[in-house]
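Quarterly update from the structural biology core.
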Amino acid sequence: MSTSFLIFFHIFVVYNDKTNIINTEGGAQMPRNKLSDPERLARKTISENLKYYSRNYTQKQLAEITGIPASTLSGYFAQRSTPNAGALEKIAAVLGIKKSDLDPRYKINQDSFPSNTEYLYKSNSVAKHIPLIGEIACGDPITAEENVEEYITHVFPQGQVPSGELIDLRAKGRSMEPTIPDGSIVTIRLQPEVEDGEIAAVQVNCDTEATLKRVKHIDGLVMLKPDNDAYDPIIITPSNPVTIIGKAIQFTSKL
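Predicted structure, tokenized:
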């Protein structure tokens, strides 16, 4: 399993019940369908490096050896798309180089950032690799390797990386719409409690999957309330116990 996947076509949205601002947590707004300056520079650099290091191969040969579709590979050369970590690893292995030789953003400044973060070269951003959790085995740590489907790379402005231990969950169903669309990747800060009204990832009665709900305290009861009124709330009782996994701090949604 690859330990990092770069996702550059995601929009980072901070939870806000009153607005739908496209925004990194505490960061600047990003217009839809527009690449950032660092991303444009990254594509240009990757394209130039690919052309230099693969000069002894045709694109067709490189596609056949790496297993990357020729149309996808062509997009990297033509600056139409950005290769993720897995694609870079395959290409670098064939060319006998490091993936940072193709994409310099992979040069790690280990003195400045934790081991699961990377300084993005020639930018003011930091990449943090966050595990995407699938099914959760009761009694196991939430981040146990058998629970991890893959690692997703989120890009944050320097100084605005969320604190604490983070995981990603994939939203399934429409119970939290319109706040969280079905299929979104939701970033969770692991913590045993959340404030009233906050969205939390919870494990109900030792289910194998976590659910996202808004935690409400009403007349001495603790209720897990969906934002979609078409769905019923969940009442926490001794016979229907709930474990709070953490607080939802943002979600990513594809264009």
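The two ends are 26 Å apart (CA to CA).
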